Task: structure prediction
Amino acid sequence: MTSQDKKNIRRWYWSGAILVFIILVIGGITRLTDSGLSMTDWKPIMGSIPPITEAQWEEAFEQYKQFPEYQVNNRGMSMDEFQFIFFWEYLHRMIARLLGLVFIIPFIWFAVKKKFDKKQLKRSLFLLALGAGQGLMGWYMVMSGLIDIPAVSHYRLAAHLTLAFAIFGSCLWFALDLRESHPDPGRGTSELKKWLYLFGFLLILQIVWGAFVAGLHAGHVYNTFPKMFQYWFPPELWISEPLLINFVENIVTVQWVHRVVGTLLALIVIAIWVRSYQLKTSFSTKMWALALFTAVLTQYMVGVFTLVLHVPVWLGVLHQAVAMILLGILIGFIHHVHCFRNQKNN
Result:
């Protein structure tokens, strides 16, 4: 694989990461405006054409009225209100289709022109499989809100969000791997790796529980910080049976877990930042540690304001976007401390 081939494939990976980021932001707006159930069918090809005429809009609205969300939550809504929620779900699906084309068309070209080596071919097929799975998961999630209860399953929402983060993170890692050179992280990175792995594990948990908070609307209870009203441990934490179900279905416990894991992440990132200066790491490693610290601090503050202000749409979307930026910085940092040795060995 030539140097130019690597550059082109790297740009392809980067374009995928950027589009996933955009989709995540639009998906956040879709979720927070309760727009996700406005389109009640899934037509991957024909569904690209929205209602245009007044008759088509009336037909789409009448179809929406047949489902629980309208009957339970939105009975009596106007056509303008329906068009508003329809717009965000439609935009979300169109950007997802664009992402599919951005993956598939260059993949075919690279494959036909034999631009892939074996490693990049496997990685590309992996991304395509993740993308196909994400499309199916998106519709599987929507289906859960079209049957009896007018709300999508928070488990399916968590799976959908986690897959989006996985695609984003994979695109970033693969793009970084195709750089021509990697700066020396300096000494002491073995210890930092352990801290970063722990941080990464907790960040994955935080992303999943963040999706649970969103899906259960758990951000609308106990809107105080740092205590939950006057409690560190609210009385409703363990009211459900069996005990473990509280962690995933009790809205108070789900929010509490999200707070606790967020605080643990903040404490760990402080340790990473301090140790990067105590150990003999390079300037670039210290800058990665500072970037991670800054991202966590920003995310923590955004999360607190989102909670105490009762989850305004713009703050909820910002909270989700900063989470993806934070994941991107973590992936870049882990790649930085890993790949200099690999480069030397090659």
Notes: The CA atoms of residues 185 and 283 lie 8 Å apart.
